[in-house]
Amino acid sequence: MIELDDIDHLFLRALAEDATQSAGALGRLCGLSQPAAWRRIRRLEKLGVLKGRRLDLNPEKLGFGVTVFLGVKLATKGRVSLDDFERAVTAIPEVQTVEHVLGLYDYRLKVVARDIPDFERVLRRRVMTLPGAGDVEANVLLSEERLPGPIE
Length: 152
Description:
5 helices, 4 strands
């Protein structure tokens, strides 16, 4: 585990809330100069604590009103390689995340679609035709509350 001090934790909480904050703004938050804050940010990046900053798009504003989480179990017959499945599934633009998981299903996919008929099209024509795709379970997202997660 990496040793982080109180200022590092303060930076991480602030960036988790708004990753667009400048080094100057973060420095003002804890009484550091802009260059000192910038060096801390760079240090956190080099240590791998900060892996990057994300742009959160609003799928609904872009016309994607339905989000579905799919559990996909690979078929046991004709064992396809995991790499083949992953390569094929990541080529589907509606698939936002691909997670290889342990449990009832082998993969968990986050899929966005314009509406339910559009999701059905993606499911039938793209997901179900993937190499090795077997059983699928769909869970439609009703609402989402984002929490920052543990930092300390």
